[in-house]
Amino acid sequence: MSYKETYPIRSYEADFKNTVKISSIFNYMQESASVHAANLGFGYEQMQKAELFWVLSRAKIIMKDYVKAGESIIVETWPKGISKLFALRDFRLYDANHREIGIATTSWLVMSKKTLRPVRPEIVLENIPTFEIAPAIPEVLEKITETEVLSPVKEITTGYNDIDINQHVNNVKYIEFVLDSFPEKLFLEKKIGSLQINFLKESKFGDRIKIAEGLISKNPYITYIEGVDEDNARVFQVCTEWI
Q1: Are strands 72-83 and 52-63 parallel, antiparallel or unpaired?
Q2: What CATH number belongs to 3-125?
Q3: What is the mean pLDDT of the chain?
Q4: What is the pLDDT of residue 217?
Q5: Where does the chain hold its CATH 3.10.129.10 domain(s)?
Q6: CA distance 93 to 211
Q7: Which uninterrupted H or E stretch holds 28?
Q8: 141 closest CA partner among 198, 93, 78, 183
């Protein structure tokens, strides 16, 4: 009952170590979720007709291994159920030999175009089949622990390449903003073992976002990064663990 799609890793989807970028993986996941939602009757076009739209609120990925350019990733995805206002969707990632290399979970909100407020996800999910599949990640994602001790990293002004069909900054672009905040040395010595991102506020064309980082544990390889807009409101929060 799950949906599977195979994605060949293009050269531009890999980093300077010839390893697939974590942002590329998020793109594959987003594409698979979109296609599967459409197949189940609540994709972009169907939601537009109902004057509703999906908003990704939280996402977490845990990577066991990475593949390289010229190889492939198989993305498996399915709805995991509902928790309060969140519609949950999980993922499993495999290499070309069907060896599991990663798992992920996401939390989505159904938003009304009229009120720009969340509505109960049962409105669009009540008629979908039950997916009797063990969760990839059992937990329902919570708020990210923050820190008051932050160091400024940089400021970004969003532009044409950041904006998606909903007229705001695409989810994966925030991942790219975060990855660009780390030094080259860290990528050479380590790789991302897990990453959770919570989206708190939308950004649009021309918005300025200040990015800052800090530590939330004694482990120097567990990092906290947040983006704050011109009104000093948090746009996103991220926790990464490097291995």
Answers
A1: unpaired
A2: 3.10.129.10
A3: 95
A4: 86
A5: 3-125, 151-242
A6: 29
A7: helix 22-40
A8: 198
Q: Encoding tokens for residue 100?
A: 């599991």
* pLDDT of res. 148: 79
Pairing relationship of beta strands 86-94 and 192-199 according to DSSP bridges: unpaired
* CA-wise closest residue to 67 among 12, 16, 8: 8
Sign of CA dihedral 75, 15, 156, 165: negative
Phi/psi zone of residue 98: left (φ > 0), alpha (ψ -120 to 50 degrees), beta?
left
Residue 234 has pLDDT above 90, yes or no: yes
The token pair at 24 is: 């590329």
Q: What are phi and psi of 33, to 5 degrees?
A: -60, -40
Chain centroid offset of residue 166 CA: 16
Q: Which CATH number fits domain 151-242: 3.40.50.620, 3.40.1190.20, 3.10.129.10, 3.30.460.10?
A: 3.10.129.10
- Alpha helices by DSSP H, listed for 77-208, are 122-125, 171-179, 184-189
143-154 residue pLDDT tens: 998 887 899 999
Overall pTM surpassing 0.70 (yes/no):
yes
Unique residue bearing structure tokens 């905040």: 181
Mean per-residue pLDDT, 137-162: 94
What are 148's two structure tokens?
Answer: 């008051």
Provide the pLDDT confidence category of residue 95 given band limits of 50, 70 and 90.
very high
